[in-house]
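Limitations
The C-alpha cells in this dataset are predictions for the assembled complex, not deposited experimental models. Users should treat interface geometry with appropriate caution, especially where small molecules or nucleic acid strands are included. An illustrative entry is reproduced here so readers can see what is and is not provided.
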Amino acid sequence: MSGMDFSKGHGTENDFVVLPDPDVRLDLRADRVAALCDRRAGVGGDGLLRVARTGALVAAGVLDAAPAGVGADDWFMDYRNADGSIAEMCGNGVRVFAHYLRATGRESADEFVVGSRAGARPVVVHRCDGATGEVTVGMGEVRELGTSTATLDGQTLTGLGIDVGNPHLACVDKGLTAAKLAALDLTTAPVFDTDFFPHGVNVEILTPMADGAVDMRVYERGVGETRSCGTGTVAAAAAALRSAGRTEGEVRVRVLGGEVQVSVRGGVAELRGPSVLVASGQVDDAWWARLG
Ligand SMILES: N[C@H](CCC[C@H](N)C(=O)O)C(=O)O
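Predicted assembly:
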C-alpha cells in the first residue's frame, strides 16, 4: 500500500490531521478535507494543517501573496476546518504545527515565525520531544467588535464580538458556574446575528473571572463543539478581562481538553499551552483517489 504521510496531533484535545505537502501537490478541496477529518470514515480531526513553505503555497496559487511579516521561506500553517472551510487562524493548531516542525527536524530553532492567513505568528518552543511540547504563540491584535447575542440551549446570551484573526463571540455569563456550564446543551449550532458576523462565528460561553481563571466551552465555526479552541481562549480571556473592567492581564482558561494561559498586553495577546503528537501514518493513495 503506498500513501500520503500524515500525523495526528492535538492542543488541549483540539485535534488535527497534519499533512506535509512541501511541493503543494494536494488539491485540498473541501469535500476531501471533510473526508479526511471524518471520525468514522476518515482519519478524524477538528481540522487539518497542511505543512508547506509560504513561497511554495504562493507559487501553487493557494495563497495570492505572502501575508505581511511572513517570508517565502517561513513555514505556513494552511488551516482547514473539519467541514473543509478555510479559517484565518488556529491558535491550538499553531502550537501543534510548531511542535511538529521541531519534532520532525524541519525546524531546529526554539523561536521562529509561523505564517497564517491572519499574518505572522511568532512562536517559542519551550520544550519538545517526539510526543509532547510546550509552546507560546504570539496571537497578534485582539480587536473588539462590539456586543452581539447568541441563542443556544433555549437561552439568549450577550457576548463581546472579538477578532483574533478569525471571528468570535465570547459570552461571559455572570451567573454561570462550572457545573452549569458543563450542563449546557451544545449539540446544536448557536443562532447568531448573521449581519454582525457575515462570515460566521466561533461562539464561546464562559464563567466570569475568579482567581485569574475562567471555564469555557466553545462551538466552532465549521466544526461544532470542540474540546478547546486556541483563538477562542484568547477571545474569552479578553472578554473576561473587559467584564472585570480591565483591558490587560493574564488569564488561565480551563477548557474541556485542559488548560492554557493567555496574556493580553497593549491589545496584543500571547497563548501558551501544550501540544501532543499522537501518531504518524499514511493515507492510502487508492482511498484518496476514490474521493475524485
Ligand atoms: N480550533 C482553532 C480555531 C479554528 C477556528 C475555526 N473554527 C474558524 O475560525 O472557523 C483554534 O485553536 O484557534
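Some entries come with short summary sentences. For this one: The two ends are 19 Å apart (CA to CA).
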